[in-house]
């Protein structure tokens, strides 16, 4: 009955169910109304969870805001028009002789994600890797914040941060994460070889388990009164240090 309200949202029970059955790989997240009891909504949620898609409860006002209408029937699906690559596709056709990757875990602010994609493209990174079910979806806000860079940067989605870090370690990558307590200054890190820069969620950072796969955490010195930098600023500093080393 209802079709796409925009290129990023599908709403209505029939439309979302059809999307689930035919193009589940395009779905970033499904929002559904609290205390739902409609049989078709239950079918949608069961199907989505079976396919391991991300779902979340939302109040009526939130669904109205997402869909842009009150005719959403208690269900909205955020979709992505981005083409996602596998990690092997990226490594089999690298942009650089020594690949440079950016891994983002759980970033909730789409403006930060877009800004990082923009900087990664400017610094000639090979890809930005996202973790499925963690962080904001790649939606219109990310497109806008990237200032067009999303159309040029390869985006990869993986199921586990630890597994992708372990895999890259086996492929000979140096894996670095910023840590204000680290002993190694970021300018002293070797970023000329195959490198992965890992950035955790705003505020919480990376889990201890993930930090085990970081060869040497790196420190970005701060001389002022603040304790840390915005995650997109951190990404920019590390990416441009990598580019500086590779051009020198």
UniProtKB/TrEMBL annotation:
Gene3D superfamilies: 3.30.1330.30, 3.40.1280.10. Residues 9-85 form the RNA 2-O ribose methyltransferase substrate binding domain. GO terms for biological process: methylation; RNA processing. Keywords: Methyltransferase, Transferase. One of its GO terms (molecular function) is RNA binding. It holds the Pfam family SpoU_methylase. SUPFAM superfamilies: alpha/beta knot, L30e-like. InterPro entries: Alpha/beta_knot_MTases (IPR029028), Ribosomal_eL30-like_sf (IPR029064), rRNA_MeTrfase_TrmH (IPR004441), SpoU_MeTrfase (IPR001537), SpoU_subst-bd (IPR013123), tRNA_m1G_MTases_N (IPR029026). GO terms for cellular component: cytosol. This is RNA methyltransferase.
């Amino acid at each position: 009955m209802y079709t796409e309200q925009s290129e990023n949202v599908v709403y209505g029970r029939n439309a979302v169910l059809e999307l689930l059955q035919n193009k589940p790989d395009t779905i970033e997240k499904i929002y559904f109304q609290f205390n739902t009891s409609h049989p078709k909504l239950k079918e949608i949620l069961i199907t989505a969870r079976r396919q391991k898609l991300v779902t979340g409860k939302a109040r009526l006002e939130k669904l109205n805001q997402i869909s842009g209408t009150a005719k959403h029937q208690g269900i909205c699906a955020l979709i992505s028009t981005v083409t996602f690559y596998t990690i092997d596709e990226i490594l089999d056709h690298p942009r650089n002789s020594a690949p440079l990757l950016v891994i983002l875990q759980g970033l909730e602010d789409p403006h930060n994600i877009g800004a990082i994609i923009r900087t990664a493209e400017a610094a000639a990174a090979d890809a930005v890797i996202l973790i499925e079910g963690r962080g904001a979806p790649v939606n219109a806000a990310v497109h806008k914040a990237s200032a067009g860079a999303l159309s040029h940067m390869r985006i990869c989605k993986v199921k586990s941060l630890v597994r992708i870090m372990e895999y890259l370690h086996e492929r000979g990558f140096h894996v670095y994460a910023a840590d204000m307590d680290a002993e190694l200054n970021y300018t002293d890190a070797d970023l000329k070889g195959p490198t992965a820069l890992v950035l955790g969620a705003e505020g919480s950072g990376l889990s201890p388990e993930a930090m085990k796969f970081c060869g040497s955490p790196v420190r970005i010195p701060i001389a002022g009164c603040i304790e840390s930098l915005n995650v997109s600023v951190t990404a920019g500093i590390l990416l441009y240090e990598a580019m500086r080393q590779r051009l020198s």
